[in-house]
Input
Amino acid sequence: MRSNLEKLIAAYEAERASLTIEMEECVAEADYGKAYLFSKGIRQVNQQLQTLYNIQDKWHDEKERLVQWISYLEETKASNELSRHFTELIAENKEKLAALQHASAQKATPGRAVRDALDKLLTGEITGFALVFQESNRLSCHLRLVRRTLILTIPEIRRHKDDCTLEKRHLRKLKQLGFALYDNKDKLMLFAPYSAIDDIKAIQLVLARITFEVFNFKDFVGDTLLKYYP
Output
């Protein structure tokens, strides 16, 4: 079964293909205004895909750069007298690319800390935990199980707005995921059923989308942790 990350990538790839077809049809009909709008959509999807591919493989950008550089060298070599020099450069860069591809294939399985915590919630080993996205700004999501309902809470909304940790675009995307404001608009909360394996997958998807759709996951590197409730 494909991971949630792979499903998201497939969905964005399908959206890009659809937007590309729409743009090409507009260009063929000389409707350049609509074509421009579709091109903007494609750029936005490309940005999301770049983020997703970098989560999937931290060497993605470097490998793409090497592929483009090797292609350029091979094209230049064909019309350049210094063919031996370019042959050596191509070989050197292909060796670097092969090393990165091998490293990607051999990389360790991503940590299961969040999945383990969600499993423990389902089995009753714990009643809740906090996923701290950014400890330096105290940006966190608290998860607590009450009977068969999982309550996700992002607290201190007013402080985060004052500190610009949460902007209007963040709040809008969080509401699109199902969060709503409570407690005098100082908490964002989401209530979800939680009694089966499929419910775990749904919550994993919500947390993943918060990390790399609502926010920029790179801002969380080295600043994220799990806290179990006593």
